[in-house]
Each structure stands twice: as structure tokens, then as C-alpha cells.
Design goal:
Helix content is 34%, strand content 20%. It is α+β, with helices and mostly antiparallel strands and 158 residues long. The chain has 2 domains: 4-52, Arc Repressor Mutant, subunit A; 63-137, 2-Layer Sandwich (Alpha-Beta Plaits), CATH 3.30.70. A 4-stranded antiparallel sheet has the order 2-3-1-4. A hairpin with a 6-residue loop joins strand 2 (91-96) and strand 3. Helix 2 packs across helix 3. It is elongated. The termini are close together. 15% of the residues are buried.
């Protein structure tokens, strides 16, 4: 469970992970040392999992975004298949899913030729993979890791 001060801290960190404890402290009306302690406790509890720089994939040559649906002969909960998919450097996300397929994988590639090599040389060499279906995103209107922390219903617990 988190309180309103923790929620404000999380909102500020989510907007800018580089915001200083002093700035957060001014916003919530506490001492920077108290904010530091609260952030440390949020990290210890696993609520804050890390701090990351977000890059523009297109500017770094990874302008193609694809979603690959993967079927596996070992089923949807095979940890080996999941691990092997996650080891592919271009894989940004790998989700076990319910439905016709077993995994939904988000892949960033340089272009269609690069995507083809990833599918042929990496996905198809995983022994449990029986089929893939690929959807290429033509445009991205929203891509975010942000959670709607300011809109959480008070009856819900985090």
C-alpha cells in the first residue's frame, strides 16, 4: 500500500526520473532526506524497479516496429522458450498470452530485411517455436511505460 506522498513521488519520478529529491521535497512539503528515504523504501519494496533513459529508436536506426505472435509446441508457459525469446537483442518485450498463440513479442528492427533475418535466424532456430505471425506497425501514436497514478481509484490498492 502506498500513501498520497508516495503517489506524488511516483508521479514526479515517472514524468522525469532525473528529478532531484530537493525538487520533490519542495513539491510535497518534506525534507529532501525524508524523500530520499521514501524513494529507497519504494525501491526496496519493488515498486520502483529501475531508472532508464528512453531513446528514439528511429534516430538510432531502428525505425521498424513489429509485433510477432509466437506459437510453441511446449505451450504458453514454457520458461525455456520465454528465455530464448528474451535473449534476442532486438526483442523489447515478451509476453505470455492467452489465445491461439503463446507469446506476443515486440521487436525493433532496422528495416524489413533486418526483421526477416531476426525471424529466420533467431526465432526459427528456437526448437519449440512452431509458427510466427508478424504485424508491422505503420505508425505509433502512443508508446509509454507510464501508469495513470494520478487517476487511481481510492478503493484500489497499489
Amino acid at each position: 500500500m502506498i500513501d498520497e506522498v508516495d503517489r506524488k513521488i511516483l508521479v514526479m519520478l515517472q514524468e522525469n526520473a532525473r528529478v532531484s529529491n530537493a525538487v520533490i521535497a519542495r513539491e510535497v512539503g518534506m525534507a529532501p532526506s525524508a524523500i530520499h528515504e521514501r524513494v529507497r523504501k519504494l525501491e526496496e519494496r519493488g515498486i520502483i524497479e529501475g531508472y532508464h533513459a528512453r531513446f528514439n529508436p528511429r534516430s538510432l536506426g531502428y525505425g521498424l516496429l513489429a509485433f510477432v505472435y509466437v506459437s510453441s509446441k511446449d505451450g504458453c508457459w514454457c520458461p525455456d522458450t520465454h528465455r530464448e525469446l528474451c535473449e534476442i537483442p532486438e526483442v523489447q518485450e515478451c509476453h505470455g498470452i492467452a489465445g491461439e498463440d503463446c507469446f506476443l513479442v515486440k521487436v525493433r528492427a532496422q528495416d524489413t530485411r533486418h526483421l526477416n533475418r531476426i525471424l529466420r535466424d533467431r526465432f526459427s532456430t528456437i526448437s519449440s517455436v512452431t509458427a510466427t505471425r508478424t504485424t508491422i506497425a505503420l505508425e505509433t501514436n502512443k508508446e509509454s511505460q507510464c501508469l495513470p497514478l494520478g487517476e487511481v481509484d481510492d478503493a484500489q490498492s497499489l
